[in-house]
Specification:
The protein is mostly beta strands and 110 residues long. The protein has one domain: Nucleic acid-binding proteins (OB fold (Dihydrolipoamide Acetyltransferase, E2P), Beta Barrel). Helix content is 5%, strand content 36%.
Length: 110
């Protein structure tokens, strides 16, 4: 287990529901999938990478909604930058977290 954090630490995380509108294999990488994610009118579209290519095909994600952490500094991934992080359950096979009901793209996750 990781150390306890305060509510103020948790409150710094900006987690939003995003809809994957494009998904592809990142050329030059055996691990990465490249997503174009619609995060709603306030944020817009972002490119976000996930190291889950071993377990999933890009087309499995198209038009589906997931939570993304969006207030991290961009991280260089080969010739592009990842502008956030997809939330995944850490298991033998990483499992994407999905809302169990319809939600609006861009909504804040608390």
């Amino acid at each position: 287990m990781k150390p306890d954090i305060s509510y103020n630490d948790f409150d710094k995380l900006d987690i939003r529901i995003g809809k994957i509108i494009e998904a592809s294999i990142k050329e030059g990488s055996e691990k990465l999938l490249r997503f174009v994610v619609d995060l709603g009118t306030e944020i817009g579209k972002r490119i976000i990478f996930a190291g889950i290519r071993k377990w999933y095909k890009p087309e499995e994600f198209i038009n589906k909604e997931y939570p993304f952490l969006i207030n991290m500094p961009p991280k260089k991934m080969l010739d592009e930058e990842s502008q956030g992080m997809m939330l995944l359950v850490d298991s033998d096979k990483p499992v994407p977290v999905m809302p169990c009901e319809d939600v609006v793209v861009g909504m804040v996750v608390r």
